[in-house]
Amino acid sequence: MTDNAPTTTARRDSSERRGAMAGRRRGGPCIIAHRAGAALWPENSLAGVRGSQALSVDGIEIDVHLTADGDLAVIHDSDLARTTRGSGAVASLTMAEIRRAPLRQAAGSQAADACVPSLADVLAVMADGASDLWLEMKGPTEGTAYPGMAHRVCAALAAADFVGRTVVMSFDWDQLVDVRSLQPGQPGQPGLRTAALLDTGGLQRAGGVTPAVVRAKDTGATWLAVAQGCATPVLLRAAAAADLAVAVWTVNDEPALKRWLHSPVGAVISDQPDRALALGRPARPWR
Predict the structure, then answer these.
(1) In sequence order, what are the beta bridge partners of 242?
(2) Looking at the chain, which runs of residues are DSSP E strands?
(3) Inter-residue contact 128 to 111 (CB < 8 Å)
(4) What is the Cβ-side half-sphere exposure of residue 208, based on CA atoms within 13 angstroms?
(5) How far apart are CA 196 and CA 184, in angstroms?
(6) 145 secondary structure, DSSP code
(7) 18-25: average pLDDT
(8) What is the rounded distance in angstroms from the CA atom of residue 241 to the CA atom of residue 235?
(9) Residue range 120-137: average pLDDT?
């Protein structure tokens, strides 16, 4: 735990949290802060998590890598160089070593936290809020996975009582199968949701919309999280027929936000959640 993470107080009852979330979602697509609001705060920072919660977003998206000592670091890239003032591969460094690298402050963003947080830090900050966690499991290189990562993520979520508040995402759909097989949580409580991430390259590799949707459904996913360019009417209809909710990313400019906030998608993922919230959502049931 860093000295930036607040001491947690008594947690709000989980059923109360879920009720609050459902009430907001009835207003249209959920609004998800991408990389904890990367256009407003340093990406994947505790400042972003706190700020996004203060905005009352429906969900906060973060990225997670596995460290050399088996911890879970909240950072997008597999290397420290772009987002911190340090260097080196996350997989080759311990969490303590990673914490020594100060975060870079993005242009126009608000005050930065001192360092890269761990997943435990993020869960502690979010414990008393109402926002869901959208957690993307990353890999050391494109198309690869960290051995045992699904188990570590599920264990961390279960220990923090976050299973019912989390959507686990990955471009590596085999990891989603691993997550579903672990089935963390307690009988009678909300289960862990998963989202199959899909971009143009992935859609091509799958052989088109129909096989992609079928494969996503076969993983046990409840969401299909797609790049804007993939979210065609054909894909939206296919996902609806398969009972997959669709999230679109990353939507930042006002015309695109207006379009997707008034579309049949279930979630809009944005670096600028404040702009999305200011535009409002239509009064229709959330899927």
Answers:
(1) none
(2) 30-33, 59-66, 72-74, 132-137, 166-170, 193-198, 223-227, 245-249, 267-270
(3) no
(4) 3
(5) 18
(6) -
(7) 38
(8) 10
(9) 97
Task: Tell which residue, 104, 90, 106, has the closest CA to residue 37.
Answer: 106
Side-chain-facing half-sphere of 183: CA atoms under 13 Å: 7
The structure tokens listed for 21 are 């979330």
Structure tokens at 129: 């809020």
SS3 264: coil
Question: 3-state class of 223 per DSSP?
Answer: strand
Q: Which residues pair with 62 in a beta bridge?
A: 135
State residue 47's pLDDT score.
95
Angle formed by the axes of helices 149-159 and 119-126, nearest 10°: 30
Which of 104, 107, 159, 125 has the alpha carbon at shortest distance from 4? 125
Report, in this order, helix, strand and coil percent for the chain, each rounded to 5. 40, 20, 45
**Could you identify the residue written with the tokens 């052989």?**
207
187 secondary structure, DSSP code: T
DSSP assignment of 86-140, as one string?
--SBGGGS-HHHHHTSBBPPPTT--PPPSBPPBHHHHHHHHTTS-PEEEEEE--S
Separation in Å, CA 287 to CA 46, 60, 243? 30, 19, 10
Q: What are phi and psi of 224, to 5 degrees?
A: -120, 110
Q: Which one, of 86, 96, 99, lies nearest residue 45 by Cα?
A: 99
What burial class does residue 83 get, using C-beta atoms within 10 Å of its C-beta: 0-12 exposed, 13-18 middle, 19+ buried?
Answer: buried
Beta strand 30-33 with 267-270: parallel, antiparallel or unpaired?
parallel
Return the minimum-mean-pLDDT range out of 18-22, 82-86, 134-138, 157-161. Answer: 18-22
Quote the CA–CA distance of 277 and 54 in Å, as a whole number. 12
What are 284's two structure tokens? 């229709």
